[in-house]
Design brief:
263 residues, 2-enoyl-CoA Hydratase, Chain A, domain 1, Lyase 2-enoyl-coa Hydratase, Chain  A, domain 2, six-stranded mixed β-sheet, three-stranded mixed β-sheet
Length: 263
């Protein structure tokens, strides 16, 4: 999974845990999201779904996370539809990775770059990071989840304001909206994301994946259906080794002392 032209994919072994996969967008100078890059991101995301690691960290090589789509491909009618399909396929695949995903957002995350961050479970940003959906300023709208995933994250009223006005958010503003889990110095973005990923990778992997599925599936359905799914997964997890270990350790030593195997 390392033979990419536009990505750097690194698997980090974790002591007493599952490995963490780091996916770095690597298309200088601003990591503009081209069809070729998105097709590689799809392959990487599908690999992480077929054989889930403990967690996945997505970041941008160099100074930027991603400054948006490759505009030249959108303005050409011959390449616009393939690019739009590549966005949909790649971002759906990222959102569908069953283990936790963390966007380590450095520099600019605009347009498609912001929409990639919205696909992830966590977002850790640098102090100078800027998020934005500027498409309206070009006379178009977000086309890779900016009207849908963003609204599900922060509600329709605030999402409309951001999209209608092409608003940019600094990292503190994004954190106040609940879009960012943590703001750190620009130099610490990747290390902070890796620290969070390592913690998750040492946890009860089956339970974490079940929780992600329950939340992501339930939020788009009815409350009764979501509660049914939650109950089924809750019951199934009692058959895992991790649950047996966690419960036994709780009675012997209290909470938070178990060492899980992911089985």
């Amino acid at each position: 999974m390392n033979n990419f032209e536009n990505l750097q994919v690194t698997t980090h072994p974790i002591e007493d845990g599952a490995p963490v996969v780091e996916i770095a967008l690597n298309r200088p100078k601003v990591n503009a999201l081209s069809t070729a890059l998105l097709e590689e991101l799809l392959i990487a995301a599908e690999a992480c779904t077929a054989d889930p690691p403990g967690a996945v960290v997505i970041t941008g090589a160099g100074r930027f996370f991603a400054a948006g789509a490759e505009i030249s491909e959108f303005t050409d009618p011959a390449t616009r539809e393939p690019l739009l399909k590549a966005f949909r396929d790649a971002f759906d695949a990222v959102a569908g990775i069953p283990c936790p995903t963390i966007a380590a957002v450095n520099g600019l995350a605009l347009g498609g770059g912001a929409e990639l961050a919205w696909c992830c479970d966590y977002r850790i940003a640098g102090e100078s990071t800027v998020f934005g959906q500027p498409e309206i300023l070009l006379g178009i709208i977000p086309g890779a989840g900016g009207t849908q995933r963003l609204a599900r994250l922060i509600g329709t009223a605030r999402a409309k304001e951001i999209v209608f006005e092409g608003e940019q958010l600094n990292s503190a503003e994004a954190q106040n909206l609940g879009l960012v889990n943590a703001v750190v110095s620009d130099e610490e973005v990747l290390s902070a994301a890796m620290t969070r990923a390592e913690k998750l990778a040492k946890g009860p992997l089956l339970a974490i994946r079940a929780a992600k599925t329950a939340i992501d599936t339930g939020i788009d359905g009815t409350l009764p259906d979501g509660l049914d799914l939650e109950g089924e997964m809750f019951d199934d997890l009692f058959d895992t080794n991790d649950a047996a270990t966690g419960i036994a350790t709780f009675f012997e030593h209290g909470p938070g002392k178990a060492t899980f195997t992911g089985t």
